[in-house]
Every structure is written in structure tokens, then in C-alpha cells.
Structure of ApeA N-terminal domain-containing protein:
Amino acid sequence: MTDEKVAAVLGGSIGWFWPADIKPRDISEDPERGYLRLLPTNLVELTSLDENPFEDRNSSALRRPRLITGATENGGVLILNITGRGTKTTIGGSTASVRSYRAQSVLVGLAIDRVRSEKLTSISAHFFGLSSWLGVSAVSEKRHISERSRIKAFEVRVESPPEQVVKIGGGREVAISAYWNATGSEDRRTIFAPGQIECRSARPKTLRELREPILRIQDLMSWCFDGFIRSESGLAEPDLSEEPDAFPKLWDKHLMTVPGAVAEARNKDFPILRLSDIGGIRALGRWLNLCDKHLRAVRPLIEPFRQGKASPPLRMLEVASAMEYWVATHKRTTQWAKVKCRLPKHNGCGYAWTLANHVGGTFSQWVGDRDAWAHSFWETYNKLKHEPGYVVDEYKLNVLADTGALLLAADVLSRVAGNKAPARSLFADTSHTWQLQRQVQQLLNDSEPTSRKPRAGR
């Protein structure tokens, strides 16, 4: 559900606009007259008339602004995350000179004369179908059945539950709650009650600083549902000189559009892991901390839902490299990272065996032969890196890389949970991984490499 106000503005709006470098310009200053719209590339574009194309080329008007305030036919806007600025100058004739700006974020429905800076104190993103996963819900229903077993009454109660809050770095905190509103006439009421993830700070922060934790939680949800989880609406609390009557709506490209070459999650009822499997709301704080400190280990898990899945050879390299980093990171502080495979027939199991050994018996049972898998994984990785004549079998690389990524996820999320419950849930319940399990066990049993085409699998 895209908010109606946001849809109206981004559908195309004429207005007056004030680009600014550091702080918003006074609306008494001369504005740029322009047209704001959302491009098919999911960038917000402002095109304005350049009424002084021969001004000093060193003036601030020619630099990329930090923010743009605007008064449009559909309300006040604050444009942020501006990625580019261009000009098209025409001398004479019947074509106008124009300036263009492109941005990734916009706030809709605010009093622009109260804006003090580009910073915000809060942003929130709304996710439909995720209330159960987040463990919050604003809606309760009750049916009243007659003596003839027919429904005689149906009650719907909408009430905001207590929010769950976890503090994170930089003076910020993340709050999980349920946002709701009701629209329509009395006889045609529509209730919207999505799960809400909010990041806020007592002191104003940039949009990027407040958005980053929500993006990382969105990445975790995308992994758990094996598809991109899109936010459908949002709110923001800008740095204003006066308290607003209502918070403006937020539109943000990264939160609210599905990246190219990435599939949106098809089913939100049966996740690979639930938040409760990982440790609940407190685990989100540990997840964010882990992403801050060890993003190199997490990238192979989350980037397929931002950038699209890499080719099998590249996927193999990035998963194995993340394994090396993750194990090496723990060598000085833990014993498990120092253990190596010593079986002669499986010489060269590398860090794949160390990680599999740490995850434990659930992975061994799932994969069928832990030692054989680790040897095959690490041998293939080394050949891919060091042997110019190595003939790539993309199906084999795809299966091994996906299995390695699942193993890495099990260990990383067990670290987040503080126990091995995520690993047990991942490998004991094969409803999501049975196809990959069958592929890897078949691969280990085959003596000859297969030439089958790669198939999707985790």
C-alpha cells in the first residue's frame, strides 16, 4: 500500500523548490519553478526552469544540494539523499534551459517553513504480513456464533500493543511495534495494521544514519523469507522548529522498491527462521552489532537480496572467503576456530570443516557426510582460485556454494542467538531446504561431475 499523499506527489507535482547546501533556504527567497515525479528507475526527479543560466559558475546554485524543500500542488516536500544534479542550457530559440536533480528519498506532507536542517529524529518503515514474524499485532478478531452455528456477529479490535525497544550504537534505538490507521466511510471501513520498525534518536541524525539499522533488519527478514521484503509505507520525524500536528510520510528507494534481478518474497507465512528462533527483539540488537563489526561474513547472506545472486563461480569465491574471515576472526578468542580436520583421506578440508564441526551434528546429519562435503567444498574453492585449467562445473559450484552459505548462516545466526537453536531449526526442519539437501547428497555420492544446469537452492 503506497500512501495516497506520496502517490499523488510522486505521480507528478508542479511546485516551487528551494535547493540548499547546509540549511534550508527561507521561502521568501526566489524559488525554482519545477516538476517533481518518480522515474521508472525508482529515482525521484525534479526538473526546474533555469531562469538564470549564465550565473556565476562557482555559485552554490550549481553544486549538488544537500536538501531541497518544496511547496507543491499536493503539499510540502523535503527531498533528501540527492544523488545527482544536471543542467541543460539553451541560448535563444524556443527551448527552455532547465536544471535537474535526482534523489532517493522524499518526505511528504510537512510545513517547509519549519524545517531546520536535513536531519531527522526518527524514521519508521511499515511491513505488511510480518506482524507474526515480528511478534506484534494491533488487530484482534472475535466471532460470535449463533445456536444454529452461523456467525451472528464479528468483532474487530484495533489497539497498538506495547512497543519493544532495543538500544543500539550512536545514541539510537530500534523500536518494534504495530502501526495502524483506518480509512473509508462507516459502512466501508478499511483497516491498515502493518508491523512497524522504527529507528530514532534524541538528537537529530542524517537519514542514512537512521535508515541503516532498518535496512539491516530488512536484510535479515529477506533472508528468512528467501525473497526481498519490501516496506510499503513509512513515516519520518524531521528536525522542525515546532512540533507537527502529524508526521510526514516517507518514501525511500532502498526500503520500498524491489532491486533489479531480485525476487520479492512470495510467502510470508512460512519463514526459514522466525525471529523467536534467533532470540527475539534482543537478537536484533546483536544482529546489528554483528553487521557493524563483521559485515564481510554477512555479505554473502544478504547481498543476493540487494544485488541479485552472483554467478556460481563468484558465489563460491565470496562464500568461501567469508568462511575464511569468520573462522580467522575467532581464532584468538575461541577454541573451536583452531580445530582442523586430520583425516588423511580428507586432507585439505580447510575452514569449511572447521565451521561444519562447530555447527555440529545437525549439519552432519543433513548433509550426509560432513567430511566429504568439506573436502569437496575446499578442494573446489582452491582449484577455482589457483588452477587456470580448472573446468568449471556450474551446477556443482552452485550446490556447494549454496550449502556453504546455509552453513555460514547457521553459525552466524547461532552467534546472534547465543545458542545453537537457529542451526537446529535450519537443519532439523527440511521443509525449506529439502531440494538443496537432495542435490548436495547426490553430488557427494556421484563419482563423476554432473553437467546438469544449476537450479535455484539455498
